[in-house]
Design goal:
By secondary structure, the protein is mainly alpha-helical. It has helices at residues 2-22, 24-50, 56-66, 70-78, 83-96, 101-119, 123-155, 161-216, 225-236, 244-250.
């Protein structure tokens, strides 16, 4: 029980000691790490809410679309939050309304780009944290080394090796903290970007199948009115060009 109670106090003490050794740069790096963690959790919650990794509905809707069941295809997409489903609905509605193919493609692309842009929000902040944290850590190290060598110069010949080594490791501490903040941030950013890349690829593939099926669908056979009229006249004439009554009499 005492061990569990003392664990938070130990963490707080270590953080305070880290801040005391690293100075204000470590404080900035810790704040950046908290911000990066909050952004990653927010994006995971957003991705889960929009079900960006769900793909099962695509084939179900396309099967209905290929079978000339436009209403059933749109119904299969109605309850989906995935951006792919929403762009497919836009394309199917435009095609059913008889709109120009280029306009439908443009509108579907606009809707898809809007959803992808919303999913990419705060990625820039993660990029800044991932690239800036190591530089801040290096800056802290440089400033720490300047302080150490300044103290050595003031000490003159009475240099204490312990003071030198202690000052150097304290200076290097900020570089370590900067890398600890940057590496997970960059990994999380690349993972999130890969999820969106696959979403975009699958969206393009699904829209292409919607449009290509519509363009390649067989047109209804034209009605041969001339042939039908000839056949009717032939039947009326007993099949030999004579009127039916005349044909009977001729036989």
């Amino acid at each position: 029980m005492s061990t569990d109670a003392g664990l938070p106090n130990s963490i707080v003490d270590n953080l305070l000691r880290l801040i005391d050794l690293g100075g204000p740069i470590v404080v900035v790096l810790l704040l950046m790490s908290i911000l990066a963690l909050a952004i990653v959790l927010l994006k995971l919650w957003q991705f889960a809410g929009m079900r960006v990794r769900r793909r099962r509905f695509i084939e179900l809707a396309l099967d209905q679309w290929r079978g000339q069941h436009a209403d059933a295809a749109q119904q299969a997409l109605a309850g989906e939050r995935n951006p792919i489903a929403q762009t497919m609905v836009v394309a199917m509605r435009g095609i059913n309304a008889g709109m120009d193919d280029a306009l439908v493609r443009e509108e579907a692309a606009r809707v898809g780009a809007r959803h992808l842009s919303a999913l990419r929000s705060y990625f820039r902040a993660l990029e800044v944290i991932g690239s800036l944290a190591p530089l801040l850590g290096l800056l802290g190290t440089v400033l720490g080394m300047i302080t150490v060598f300044s103290e050595l110069a003031d000490a003159g010949s009475a240099v204490d090796p312990a003071l030198l080594s202690g000052g150097i490791w304290e200076a290097l501490l900020t570089t370590a903290v900067g890398l600890i903040v940057a590496v997970p941030t960059v990994l999380a950013l690349n993972w999130l970007e890969r999820i969106l890349e696959r979403l975009h690829e699958d969206m393009q593939d699904a829209l292409t199948q919607v449009f290509t099926h519509y363009q390649m669908a067989p047109a209804p056979a034209p009605v041969d009115t001339v042939g039908d009229s000839t056949a009717k006249r032939t039947a009326a004439h007993g099949g030999n060009g004579m009127p039916a009554r005349a044909a009977r009499y001729a036989n």
